[in-house]
Design a protein that fits this description.
- The complex is a heterodimer of chains A (307) and B (285).
- With 307 residues, chain A is of the alpha/beta class.
- Chain A has twelve helices and twelve strands.
- Chain A folds into two domains: 155 residues, Thiamin diphosphate (ThDP)-binding fold, Pyr/PP domains (Rossmann fold), CATH 3.40.50; 128 residues, Rossmann fold (3-Layer(aba) Sandwich), CATH 3.40.50.
- In chain A, the strands form two sheets. Chain A has a seven-stranded mixed sheet, sandwiched between helices. A five-stranded mixed sheet of chain A has the order 7-9-8-11-12, sandwiched between helices.
- In chain A, strand 11, helix 10 and strand 12 form a beta-alpha-beta unit.
- Chain B has 285 residues and is an alpha/beta fold.
- In chain B, strands 1-2-3-5-4 form a five-stranded parallel sheet, sandwiched between helices.
- The radius of gyration of chain B is 18 Å and the shape is globular.
- The N and C termini of chain B lie far apart (43 Å).
- Classes of the chains: A alpha/beta (307), B alpha/beta (285).
Chain lengths: 307, 285
C-alpha cells in the first residue's frame, strides 16, 4: 500500500508542479526516486510533526499542494492541533498521509499503533477521510486526494499488504464497494483488515452463511445509501475495523442506522476501549486482539443468532 | 521610508498615528465588551512601523502572490491589528464598532477567512511561526522576494512548536522570515520570570541559528530602521527582540498581570480615557 501511494505521488508530481512530498524522518528508501527527480520538492522535516503540518499549511496558502507523510499515530496525534487550526480551520489544501494503520507495526507496541486516528480525523470539520484496503485502492485514493481542494487524511497500512481486488474497478470517493454478495448478513469493512474479512467470508460460506462484504474506503463522507440499502435487506449488520470501535467505521455505520430508524441486529468488531495488546507477528496480533478471521466468523454468527 | 537625515514630520505623523491606534484599541475593546487590552497596547508601535512604513501590502494587493505577509501569532492582541487594518482601508471602519458582537467579522482572535488583510487565524499559540515559515519557504521555492513577518508573544516562546520551527527556519536559510518578539515580560498570570523564564532570549535564538537584534519596541524610528533593512544577516532568519511594556499608555495597567483579560470599571475607565485622551466612550448596551 505504501509503495502504491508513493508511485502515485511520483506520477502526480510529474503532472502538477504544485505537489510536494513532506516527510518527518520516515520513508527512507521508498522516496529515493521522488527525491532524485524532484530534489526541491521533497522536504524532510526531521522528527518534528507539528512543524511539518503547520509549514505545510503555510505552503498551501501560497498555492502548493503538500502531501505530508509519517507514521499515522504521530501525524494525527502529535500534530492534532496543527491539523485542526492551521489546516482545517483555515481550509488549507494539505494532504495528511499516515503509514502504519491499526497495529500493523505489531511488536513496536501501542505508541506506534494508530487505533483512534479515524475517530479524531473524522471529527474535524472539512476533513475527508480515506482508508484504502489494498494497493490498487491506495493508488486511486492518492490520485483522488489531489483532486480535492481541501484537507484529506489517508490511512495507509504498510508495504507488502495484499491486493483485494482481482481486477481494476471503478473507484468513486464516498461510495462503498460490494466485494462479496450475500443476504444473510452484511459485513462492513475498511482498510487493512479487509483481507481478513474476506477470509472470514469464505469460512462463513462453508458453514452455509452468505454474507455481503462491503468495503468502505471513504470513512468521511460515509456512503449512507449503501448502508441503508444493505441494512434493510438483511437481519444482521457487522462492522470490522483495525481500530477502536469508538468513533471509526462502526460508529459511522451506527449513526446512519440509528438516524434512519433501521432496526437490525448490529455488532462492531474492533478494539473495544483498549490499546492493542501483545507482541508478535501481524497475524498473531490480529488473533491477540480479536480481529482474526475466526473472531470475525464467531462475531458474525453471534450477531445472527442472539443469545 | 524614513530618511536618517531627518524627517521629523514623518516621525511625528507616525507617533500621532500610534496614539490614535491606541485610543482606537481601548474604545473598540471597551465598547465591544471585552478583550485583551494590555497585550494589544504593547504592540502598537510595532504595527505602526510595519504597516505604515515597511510592509508591501495594501488593500489592493491582498491576493497578490508578491505581497509581504504579516502574521500576528499572538492572536489575542488582534484588536491592535484590527484598528490598523481598518485605518488603512482593508475593511470599513464601522466594523470596529461591532467588534465581538453577533454578525461581526471581528472576534477575540483573528479569522483569516473573514477579515480582509488577516493572513492567519491565530489564537492557539505557537502556530503563527511555522505557518509563516511555510510561506517563507514557498517564497524561496518560487523565487519571490516578499518578506514574512511573524509577531509572537514572549510567553509564546514557552510553546515547544516554536523551537521546532526555530531549527527548521535556520536549516532552510529562510532569510525572508523575520520574527518579532513582543518582550513585555508578562504572561497571563504573572511575570515570565516567576513562571517559566524564556531569557536569555537572544542567546537562545542565536544558538538556533537566527540573527538577533534588540530594539525599543515603542521607538518607531528605531523599529522602522530595523524593519526596513531586513534581513539582518543574509541566509539567516531574523529575530527582533522588541522590549515593550504590557499595557503601555494606561498607567494602572502597565506591568500589572491582572489586567491581561479584564475590563475596567467606570472610574478606571475615566482615568484611562484621560490618559489616552479619549473624549467619550459609548455606553455598553
Amino acid at each position: 500500500m505504501r509503495n502504491a501511494y508513493i508511485d502515485a505521488l511520483y506520477e502526480l508530481a510529474g503532472e502538477d508542479d504544485r505537489i510536494l512530498a513532506l516527510v518527518a524522518d520516515n520513508g527512507a528508501i521508498v522516496y529515493d526516486k521522488f527525491r532524485e527527480s524532484y530534489p526541491n520538492r521533497f522536504i524532510n522535516f526531521g522528527i518534528a510533526e507539528a512543524n511539518m503540518v503547520s509549514v505545510a499549511a503555510g505552503l498551501a496558502s501560497c498555492g502548493k499542494v503538500p502531501f505530508t507523510y509519517t507514521i499515522a499515530s504521530f501525524l494525527t496525534m502529535r500534530a492534532f492541533e496543527q491539523i485542526r487550526n492551521d489546516v482545517c480551520m483555515q481550509r488549507m489544501n494539505v494532504k495528511l498521509v499516515g503509514i502504519g494503520a491499526g497495529f500493523v507495526y505489531s511488536n513496536l507496541g501501542p505508541t506506534h499503533h494508530a487505533t483512534i486516528d479515524m475517530s479524531i480525523m473524522r471529527a474535524l470539520p472539512g476533513m475527508t477521510v480515506f482508508s484504502p484496503s489494498g494497493p490498487l485502492e491506495a493508488r486511486k485514493i492518492t490520485r483522488e486526494a489531489a483532486l480535492i481542494d481541501g484537507p484529506v487524511y489517508i490511512r495507509l497500512s504498510v508495504g507488502g499488504s495484499p491486493e483485494i481486488y482481482e481486477a481494476d474497478y471503478e473507484f468513486e470517493a464516498g461510495k462503498g464497494v460490494i466485494l462479496k454478495d450475500g443476504g444473510d448478513a452484511v459485513i462492513f469493512t475498511t482498510g487493512s483488515i479487509t483481507p481478513e474479512v474476506l477470509k472470514a467470508h469464505g469460512q462463513l460460506k462453508t458453514r452455509g452463511i452468505n454474507a455481503r462484504v462491503i468495503n468502505i474506503h471513504t470513512i468521511k463522507p460515509i456512503d449512507k445509501n449503501i448502508i441503508i440499502d444493505s441494512a434493510t435487506k438483511t437481519s444482521a449488520v457487522i462492522t470490522v475495523e483495525e481500530h477502536s470501535i469508538i468513533g471509526g467505521l462502526g460508529s459511522a455505520v451506527a449513526e446512519v442506522l440509528a438516524e434512519h430508524g433501521i432496526a437490525v441486529r448490529f455488532k462492531r468488531v474492533g478494539l473495544n476501549g483498549v490499546f492493542a495488546g501483545g507482541y508478535g507477528t501481524y497475524d498473531e496480533m490480529k488473533e491477540l486482539n480479536g480481529l482474526s478471521a475466526t473472531d470475525i466468523v464467531r462475531e458474525t454468527i453471534g450477531c445472527l443468532i442472539p443469545t | 521610508m524614513i530618511e536618517k537625515s531627518g524627517a521629523p514630520d514623518k516621525i511625528n505623523q507616525l507617533l500621532s498615528k500610534a496614539e490614535a491606534i491606541r485610543r482606537s484599541i481601548f474604545k473598540i475593546i471597551c465598547e465591544g465588551g471585552g478583550g485583551h487590552i494590555p497585550a494589544s497596547l504593547s504592540i502598537v508601535e510595532i504595527l505602526v512601523a510595519l504597516y505604515y512604513e515597511c510592509l508591501k501590502i495594501t488593500p489592493e494587493t491582498i491576493g497578490s502572490p508578491d505581497r509581504d505577509r504579516f502574521i500576528l501569532s499572538k492572536g489575542h492582541a488582534c484588536v491592535s491589528l484590527y484598528a490598523v487594518l481598518a485605518d488603512l482601508g482593508f475593511f470599513d471602519k464601522s466594523e470596529l464598532g461591532r467588534f465581538g458582537r453577533r454578525g461581526s467579522i471581528l472576534g477575540g482572535h483573528p479569522d483569516m477567512l473573514k477579515i480582509p488583510g488577516v493572513e492567519a487565524s491565530t489564537g492557539a499559540l505557537g502556530h503563527g511561526l511555522p505557518f509563516g515559515a511555510g510561506i517563507a519557504l514557498a517564497g524561496k521555492m518560487d523565487n519571490r522576494d516578499y518578506k514574512v513577518i511573524v509577531l509572537m508573544g514572549d510567553g509564546e516562546c514557552q510553546e515547544g512548536s516554536v523551537w521546532e520551527t526555530a531549527m527548521f527556519a535556520s536549516a532552510h536559510k529562510l532569510d525572508n522570515l523575520c520574527v518579532i518578539i513582543d518582550y513585555n515580560r508578562f504572561q497571563a498570570m504573572d511575570a515570565l520570570d516567576n513562571i517559566i523564564p524564556v531569557s536569555p532570549l537572544a542567546d537562545k535564538w542565536s544558538a538556533f541559528g537566527w540573527q538577533v537584534k534588540e530594539a525599543d519596541g515603542h521607538n518607531i524610528t528605531e523599529l522602522t530602521e530595523i524593519f526596513s533593512s531586513l534581513p539582518i544577516h543574509p541566509l539567516k532568519p531574523s529575530l527582533i527582540i522588541a522590549n515593550t511594556i504590557k499595557g503601555k499608555g494606561v498607567s494602572f495597567m502597565e506591568n500589572v498581570p491582572i489586567w491581561h483579560y479584564r475590563m475596567p470599571n467606570e472610574e478606571e475607565m475615566r482615568t484611562a480615557c484621560e490618559e489616552l485622551q479619549i473624549e467619550e466612550l459609548k455606553k455598553q448596551e
